[in-house]
Amino acid sequence: MIGTIRRECLDWVIPVNEGHLRHVLLEWVAHYNRGRPHASVGPGIPEGSVSDLAPASHGHPIRVGCCVAAEPILAGLHHEYRLERKAA
């Protein structure tokens, strides 16, 4: 865990004081536990029936009527992705 924190977070952020370090680590740990894909649990593909999926020429198929939305974490150092319904 310490190596992962260093490689994925602290090698890219220079904390200016202890309060800043605590803030950065709290945000990164939340991302690590909630949004970061873990190799042991697969790529994090949303569940759904095969009929709901649009054919894809590359990558993973996406549900019909949905698009992928990104949310920046730690000012864009990492991103969390989710499916959202397309606007009509």
User: Count the helices. How many?
Assistant: 2
Q: Which H/E pattern describes the elements?
A: HHEE
The count of DSSP E runs of length 2 or more, i.e. the number of strands, is 2
| Shape field | elongated
Low-confidence stretches: 45-50
* Spatial sequence of strands, sheet with the most strands: 1-2
Terminal-residue CA separation:
43 Å
Strand content: 15-25%
Account of the 3D structure:
The chain is built from 2 helices and 2 strands, in the order ααββ. A two-stranded antiparallel sheet has the order 1-2. Mean pLDDT is 78; it is low at 45-50. It has one domain. It has 88 residues and is an alpha+beta fold. A hairpin with a 4-residue loop joins β1 (66-73) and β2 (78-85).
How would you summarize what this structure contains?
The chain is an alpha+beta fold and 88 residues long. The protein contains two helices and two strands; from the N terminus they run ααββ. The N and C termini lie far apart (43 Å).
Set down the secondary structure blueprint.
Layout: H1 2-10, H2 18-34, E1 66-73, E2 78-85
Antiparallel strand pairs: 1-2
Features:
88 residues; alpha+beta; two-stranded antiparallel sheet; 2 helices; 30% helix
